[in-house]
Amino acid sequence: MTIRRNPPAKGGGLPSREEILAFIGREQRPAKIGKREIARAFGIKGPDRVALKSLLKELEAEGAIERRRKQLHKPGQLPSVLLAEIAGRDNDGELIATPLEWDAAQGPAPKILFHFDRRRPGMSVPGVGDHALIRTELRRDAGPREPAYGGRLIKLLDRAKSQMLGIYRTDSHDGGRVVPVDKRNLSRGEFVVAEGGEARDGDLVAVDILRSSRLGLPAVKIRERLGSIANERAMSLIAIHAHGIPARFRPEALAEAERARAPNMAGREDWRDMPLVTIDPADAKDHDDAVFAEPDPSQDNPGGHILFVAIADVAAHVRPGSALDRDALERGNSVYFPDRVVPMLPERISNDLGSLRAGEDRPALAIRMVVDKNGHMRAHDVHRVTLRSAAQLTYMQVQAAWDGLPGPETQALLEPVLKPLFAAYEAIKIARRQRSPLDLDLPERKILLKPDGSVDRVIVPPHLEAHRLIEEFMILANVAAAETLEARHQAFIYRAHGEPTLEKLNALSEFLASIGIKLAKGQVLTARQFNGILARVKGTEHENVVNEIVLRTQAQAEYVHENYGHFGLNLRRYAHFTSPIRRYADLIVHRALIRALRLGGDGLPELSAEDLAEIAAQISAAERRAMAAERDTAERLIALYLGDRIGTIFSGRISGVTQVGLFVRLNETGADGFIPAATLGDDYFRYDESLHALIGNRTGKMHQLGHEVSVKLIEASPFAGAMRFELLSEGKSVPLRNKKWGKRASRRDKKPTGGNRSTRLHRRQT
After folding, report:
1. So which residues are the catalytic ones?
2. What is the pTM (predicted TM-score) of this model?
3. How many domains does the chain fold into?
4. Helix (H, G, I), strand (E, B) or coil at 196
């Protein structure tokens, strides 16, 4: 990719700080700027490269530049494609947008002058409050007080202001009212129903907000009746509608799915005699990956293994540009709720043709991988095949067989299939330990429902060696897919995870220093070094809080078209290949492999870098949307589950600390609730950001992230997904830091003001 530049003449030694800053500021997208580009532009060679690295670190530590995705930017510089919220209008009535994801530590979010093509047929007109995928560019003609960026609409994602979910309540005076369930609208109070379909008292309804006068309640029109709120299934419905998750397929997409048939053997290898098996949770409805392993007979690889990972060939059924493909891209991924799944593809594909059912012929894209006795990959190749799964197994069945208790499903498979799988896994574990990916212990809770849909209990499923076996096989296959495509110079979408920002690392360093762990300021930590920190505190009183803070230090993984590595897995290149039934990114990778290796005519069409960037941004947004919807539903269900236990005492751990109070996560259910700072006791508590704690001015009592506490449930609001607790535990005593607190105190601070704070329910935003 060509970079436009005009630096000083090459060979002039190390450039000055001002020259580097001017160079980074002058360069415009789509060019990417890193140490290599700067060295090439200024002709820096040999020992001067080390000096350049040190200079760049100094500039980063000072905040003069920032590093994102291993690229250097001037602070506040925006990516070319991003998610934005239309925040308002300027004096000329033009729309102004701001990035949805912005680190407040960088200062105020940049403003974007928003443009859209009013002539495009069928395009919705965006308005204030809407979320959109937009393309940004620097405005050359921007004045000193004008937005530095312009943005053009790629896709409108939701209509935040004009639509709403609420509970319908009958009213003898004016016919009916709607009480919002979405937190964004709770402050607006009730709405009067002006028109719309029939609804019964207690129904969950979707409404359009109508314009109204200043007098009286605002009005709404009932657009759809979604069912009774007495049914727990309403909780997932709220999330589906509140987050704008597409829940209905287009008729033409359903018709395409019904017409789909299994492809014939033409152009495919016959793997039907290979005893590949699927291993999934007991309640899985689709089975899109199958595995097999055997010892490598080659004398050049003593003790080595050959691994086979076969993935359902969804590309054979979902052609680029088809109605199925358009629906899949819009959804981005499947969304999983305790009571339902909103699939990326219709059941005809996801649960039938794209599911590797035992004993049935199915098309697949498979990767054959050769590893040595220490689990290092020596070679790999991709095949388009027809397979016939030998068995449909669960994790519990496989684990029991490996533990010496095989059941009827696994007895005959133990020697020929399961033992070679675990032998290969033991080798892969050696390579994994040497690679040392980030090793955070993050138990996942699962909500179990009764037959009537109500919550039965919340459990933490055990993480078995059988789970880890499949995870490691899938990681290897994902790496092999990315390496294959890079070797063929085929564009595709990576799964990337960036390094922690310098600001977060400095905050971590400051906290670790308070518990006696010293890190050099500005030190760049690897995943292995993070693991070393976690190992140092394991079993100590600081274990919980350090795990929490290390987790919060990490960046969020995303899909990108330009690789910058996967920090958490400690891998240089990584792609999602193993779940095309439920992730559009994997379907892109499958199509890219088909095209690059000439495995058929249904490969990836010609796409520009901009096209891939748009797709990557869109499916990253869909992933975050799904995570938020799943989290909201879990919170609402647990609040409903605990609603009849007001006054009950629970044990938990402080999961968040803010200026206005504490968040506590219950050990029993994993639910989060809020404790207002005003209720913590007869003291004025100040927020210490470096310690992640609230500390009493007078008593020195400290409530810190990770502390074990006892709380009493005071209030539960199921539709807000929120709970309020009363803290029963005493804070830990710490020496009062008079100098620090004395400097921060003011006349206003001498008199505690906590008693006047609102104690309404709060919800942590993550």
Report:
1. 280, 286, 288-289, 395, 582
2. 0.81
3. 5
4. strand
